[in-house]
Amino acid sequence: MILKSDMTFHSKRKSLTVKAFLAATLLAIWFPGLGRRREPKRRMRQHTSTGMSIHGPSGARKYLNAPERRRFRRAVRQVPTEIRLFCLMLMWSGGRLSETLALTPAALDLDSRVVSFETLKRRARGIVRQVPLPPALVDELARVFGLRAMQRDPSLASRRLWPWGRITAWRRVKSVMSAADIHGPSASPKGLRHTFGVAAFQARVPPHIVQRWLGHASLRTTAIYGDVSGREERSFASAIWQSW
């Protein structure tokens, strides 16, 4: 004989079981990942590669060597003034193509002879870096563009010096490279940026200053320019050759 109290207990238990099942179903729908076993996080590699290199997969250089630099400087003298000044700005500043195209009269400090770039490869905008320029280049820029007068006029101070598109600018640099008989990965605006980095390291500029000039977020990225064999390494190798 089943007592009434037992029936009430079993009925309540069944009701609680149904409610728990419904609650679990709703939680599974709302939070699909709830209750799953989480995979242990992989440890980050201590030596993560930046993914950058100044040599291509086949070993081809992405920068100009000394003879190519001399040929480029000779070739750039034969092109129209605005193209020549653009190429020289890339060569002496290490600026990226888009950063150089964005330059305005206000970005040039004619007295201190420095150029201010807005670093465009950072996530945050408004990060500005200053790079010293050769006095002769700054003086010619001031003369050709009339920079002092433009800087005094607010409507002109923010006008781009080179109102070209990226493709046009890239082609004009490429044509100078071709005239200088420079081909391959180094024959590009990026090749001039790499050349600046290599030249800075070979001139023994402290790495943290090269990092600031190039606008790198990490010093490890800047360190790739130290992989180039310079005069000191060649003198070491020469001593080995003479010992054989």
Can you give a write-up of this model?
With 244 residues, the protein is mainly alpha-helical. The protein has a domain at 66-227: hpI Integrase, Chain A (Orthogonal Bundle). Helices cover 53% and strands 5% of the residues. A 3-stranded antiparallel beta sheet has the order 1-2-3, with helices on one face. A hairpin with a 4-residue loop joins strand 1 (108-109) and strand 2. Helix 3 (81-93) packs antiparallel against helix 5 and helix 3 crosses helix 9. 24% of the residues are buried.
Question: What is this structure, in a nutshell?
Answer:
By secondary structure, this protein is mostly helical. 53% of the residues lie in helices and 5% in strands. It has a domain at 66-227: hpI Integrase, Chain A (Orthogonal Bundle), CATH 1.10.443.10.
Helix content: 40-55%
Strand content: under 5%
Q: Number of helical segments? A: 12
Under CATH, the homologous superfamily of the domain at 66-227 reads Intergrase catalytic core
What is the CATH architecture term of the domain at 66-227?
Orthogonal Bundle
* Strand elements, count: 3
The biggest beta sheet, please?
3 strands, antiparallel
Structural class from helices and strands?
mainly alpha
The spatial strand order of the largest sheet comes to 1-2-3
Mean pLDDT: 83
CATH class of the domain at 66-227: Mainly Alpha
> Ends: how far apart?
110 Å
Low-confidence stretches: 39-50
CATH fold descriptor of the domain at 66-227: hpI Integrase, Chain A
Judging from the principal axes of the Cα atoms, what is the shape?
globular
> Rg to the nearest angstrom?
31 Å
What is the H-and-E element order?
Answer: HHHHEEEHHHHHHHH
